[in-house]
Amino acid sequence: MKFIQDDFKILYNREIQNGFFDILVDCPSIAERARPGQFINVLCGEKPLRRPISICEIDKSAGSIRMVYQVRGEGTEWMSGLCDGGTINLLGPLGNGFNIPAKSRGMAVVGGGIGTPPLLGAAKQYLADNSERSCTAVLGFRSAAAVILEDDYRAVCDTVVTTDDGSYGRHGLVTLPLEEQIAQGGIDVIIACGPTPMLKAVAEVGAAHGITTFVSMEQRMGCGVGACLACVCKTRLAGEEMYSKVCTHGPVFNASRVVW
Ligand SMILES: Cc1cc2nc3c(=O)[nH]c(=O)nc-3n(C[C@H](O)[C@H](O)[C@H](O)COP(=O)(O)OP(=O)(O)OC[C@H]3O[C@@H](n4cnc5c(N)ncnc54)[C@H](O)[C@@H]3O)c2cc1C
Ligand code: FES
Question: Which end of the chain has fewer CB atoms surrounding its CB within 10 Å, N or C?
């Protein structure tokens, strides 16, 4: 697999919600190769381990990559201090990305919290690839204060927002609106990214309706390129259980292959 490692110019790095940042990087060599669902390993100051951040959007003609990240610890805190016009060292694109069947005509996108960014670019690409396609999004957040990218999604597709505490949008989990969307018909593929319990629940809904479901898994990572085995998750193939590397075999898996 070919990937790029270099310093790139930051076009902007701004806070879009309390503790959530949106960064746009001028990196034509990465943008040219990148696909929705892949991720970038970001060098964060003196930290020996890079931090994996998903690609939110790719603009191949402008040569830029957008990422949306939440400040969780020292690495992402360091990223949040980067200035417009400065440089950032990126390694990527990494991972497999979404591989949606060409015959698909209706997709449901299910994002939870900081799992919503990687699905935005996937939804845009899905619609751009075929004008006969439709797409709906169900986005779940803890509370109103954690809602991100709602306007970005609404500009692309029908969007339902849920919150766990009912402080914004619909009260409750993403699975109920997802079931409602499926009941309306036309959905033949589901893609999801978010906390593992949400992914498992979405996988169960997809399986119950016989809809192909792809999940983007998150694991703590070391190298990000398949060398250290820090990121393995349990999968199955032809009835055999095995360990797969989220960084290279994933992060996107057919949900039927994941051992929850
Ligand atoms: C493939 C992939 C894509 C990702 N995409 C995004 C993204 O688009 N936006 C974003 O904000 N974050 C994303 N993450 C999570 C992000 O990598 C971590 O939040 C980040 O590495 C934390 O680094 P830190 O130094 O700030 O915090 P650390 O001090 O390293 O960790 C702080 C806390 O964050 C949590 N954490 C750290 N790493 C992970 C992880 N890999 N998965 C889940 N929780 C973690 C742990 O609870 C930990 O206690 C992604 C992770 C993976 C594996
Ligand atoms: S992070 Fe090293 S093998 Fe996946």
Answer: N
Q: What is the pLDDT of residues 183-215, one digit of tens each?
A: 999 999 999 999 999 999 999 999 999 999 999
- Domain 106-216 is found in CATH 3.40.50.80: yes
The pLDDT tens digits of the residues spanning 29-82 come to: 999 999 999 999 999 999 999 999 999 999 999 999 999 999 999 999 999 999
Burial degree of 44 (CB within 10 A; 0-12, 13-18, 19+): buried
CATH superfamily of this structure's domain 4-94: Translation factors (2.40.30.10)
What separation in Å is there between the alpha carbon of 148 and the centre of ligand 1? 17
Residue with CA at minimum distance from ligand 1 atom 41: 220
- Residues at CB less than 6 angstroms from ligand 2: 221-224, 226-231, 245, 247
Instruction: Determine the atom of ligand 2 nearest the C-alpha atom of 245.
Output: 4
67 C-beta neighbours (distance < 10 Å), count: 23
- Report the nearest atom of ligand 1 relative to the CA of 250: 1
Domain with CATH 2.40.30.10 in the chain: 4-94
Residues 6+ apart with CB under 8 A from 171: 162, 163, 165
